[in-house]
Design brief:
By secondary structure, the protein is α/β, with parallel strands linked by helices. The chain has a single domain, classed as 3-Layer(aba) Sandwich (Rossmann fold). The radius of gyration is 18 Å and the shape is globular. It binds NADP nicotinamide-adenine-dinucleotide phosphate (NAP). The site of NADP nicotinamide-adenine-dinucleotide phosphate has 28 residues, from helix 3 and helix 8.
Amino acid sequence: MKKAIGAAIFYARFARPFSRLGFRRRVGDAGLDADFSGQRWVVSGATGGIGRAIALGAAARGATVLALGRDPGKLAALAAEAKGPGMIQPVPVDLSLMREVARVADEIAAAGPVDVLVHNVGVMCHEYRQTAEGLELGFATNLLGHWVLDQGLRRGGALTSGSAIISMSSGGMYGAALDPGALQATGAASHDGFTAYAQHKRAQVELTHYWNSLGPGQPRAWVMHPGWVDTDGVRSALPGFRKVFKAVLRTAQDGADTALWLAAARPETGEGIWLDRHRDSEHAFAFTRAGAAAPALVEYLDRMRA
Ligand SMILES: NC(=O)c1ccc[n+]([C@@H]2O[C@H](COP(=O)([O-])OP(=O)(O)OC[C@H]3O[C@@H](n4cnc5c(N)ncnc54)[C@H](OP(=O)(O)O)[C@@H]3O)[C@@H](O)[C@H]2O)c1
C-alpha cells in the first residue's frame, strides 16, 4: 500500500516533465550546433538505446568515440553506422566484470587522453544475480564499474582538467535516500530491483559531487537523466510501464541530447541534476536529503573494489 501511494505521487509529479512533452517544452527543435572534432570520447553501454545515440551524435559532430559494449555484432554494426567527420571504435568489454573494466581503462589511458567520458551503462535487474566476481549484477554494472573505469583512466593520466565526465542517472533516484548498505543485496531474499536501481542512480549523483570536490587540475563532472525513453532496456525491464506510457516516451536521441549538450556547453558544476539542458534540484522529496553523503559511498566502493 505504501509503495503504491509512493508510485502514484511519483508519477503525478513527473509524468509530464519526463515524457516527450517535457523534452518538447524545454528543448524542442533547438538543435545542437557543436563541433567535437579532435576529441576522444569514451561511452559505456554504447551498443543500444541512449548510449548508442550519444555515440552516434558525438561521432556525427567530429569526435572519435570509443564505444564500450559486450556484443561484438552490435559493436560492429554501430561502427558501420557512424556517419560524418568522426568515427566509432569498438571496445569489447563486459562492464559488470571489474577485471575487464580495469584492463580496458588501462588500455584506453595508454593510448592517450580522454576529452569526454560518459558513464551511460545501466541495467535494472529484477532477479538477483551475482557476477563471476561475486558482486550483485546491477551494482557492478551501474556503479562499481563506473568507479573502476574512472579510477583507471585517472590513474593512467587520461582524465585531465579539460576532460568532462557525464553520468547517466535516472529520475528514479528522486525516490531514494542514499544508503551504501542498500547498494547490493547479498541474496535473492533481500533483493528488490527497483530499490537497488534507485540507490545506484542516487549514488551517481553523490559520486559526481565527490569527483567535483577533488579540486583544481581534475576533470569536471555532471550528472543528468534522460527522462523516459523508449529503449530495449525499458522494453525488457519495465513492460507494464512501457505499455501505459508508450505514446509519450522519448526517442533515444531525445534522451541523448543533454549529454551531448553538456559536453559542448560545460556549464558551472555544483548541486543539481540535468534534464533537457536545465539544472533541476537533486531532491524532490524531503526524506532523500537525509541520505548518506559521498565519503561513505566512496569508502564502500573502495571496499568492494578491493
Ligand atoms: N530508458 C530510459 O527511460 C531511462 C530512464 C532513466 C535512466 N536511464 C539510464 O540511461 C542509461 C541507458 O539506458 P537505456 O534505456 O538506453 O538502456 P538499454 O536500452 O538497456 O541499453 C543499455 C546498453 O548497455 C549495454 N550493457 C548492459 N550491460 C552491459 C555489460 N555488462 N557490459 C557491456 N554493455 C552492457 C547493453 O548492451 P547489450 O545490448 O549487450 O545488452 C546496451 O547496449 C542507463 O544508465 C539507464 O539507467 C534510462
